[in-house]
Amino acid sequence: MHQDCIFCKIVAGVIPCFKIYEDEHTLAFMDINPVNPGHCLVVPKNHAPNLFESDDADLARTMAVVRKISRAVQKALNPYGLNLLQANGPGAAQSVFHLHLHIIPRERDDDLRMNWGLKSGNKDEIAAVAEKIKEALED
Ligand code: DGP
User: Fold this and answer.
1) What pLDDT is stored for residue 110 in this prediction?
2) The domain at 6-138 falls in which architecture?
3) Going by CA atoms, what residue is nearest to atom 3 of ligand 1?
4) Ligand 1: which of 7, 96, 120 to mutate, judged by most atoms within 8 Å of the beta carbon?
5) Is 88 exposed, middle or buried (0-12, 13-18, 19+ CB in 10 A)?
6) Average of per-residue pLDDT values in the chain
């Protein structure tokens, strides 16, 4: 665990999150600043600051979980579309330096641009969407 890494703290359970899925190597949880409802993140538990420094096995496992969660999001929310996004470096608007994949459900005409402003989401709404995604994972 990296002392100053917020996602390491979430992985360790020191900071709470709306968890969707966890296994030995990977954690999926809701983004606290959702750009659209259902916006969630998948991280390897082992710290790597970005894609360049990631471990092959961790990356492969993370991507497998990204697909699993994306399927659940698709089933639970039936979005207009779904994007994956992964940022490397401040120039790419990376703000948390622990490798993570964004799963972003799209809404019709949401006019979403790649670098959106971070705005706090409504916690009750985030929790409710997390439950829907978790139910779809169990099916
Ligand atoms: P990026 O800008 O690509 O590094 O994305 C980081 C995302 O992490 C951003 O969408 C907001 C989210 N985020 C930041 N801090 C927290 C937190 O403490 N909890 C959760 N759940 N998400 C966070």
Assistant:
1) 94
2) 2-Layer Sandwich (3.30)
3) 94
4) 96
5) middle
6) 96
Annotated domain spans of the chain: 6-138
pTM of the model: 0.96
> Ligand 1 centre from 101 Cα, in Å?
10
Q: Which residues of the chain are modeled with pLDDT < 70?
A: none
DSSP state of 38: T
Catalytic residues, by residue number, are 100
Locus of tokens 């990376």: 94
The encoded tokens of residue 134 equal 């978790």
| Burial profile 6-23: b = 16 or more Cβ within 10 angstroms, e = fewer | bbbbbbeeeeebbebbee
CA of 102 to the centre of ligand 1 (A): 9
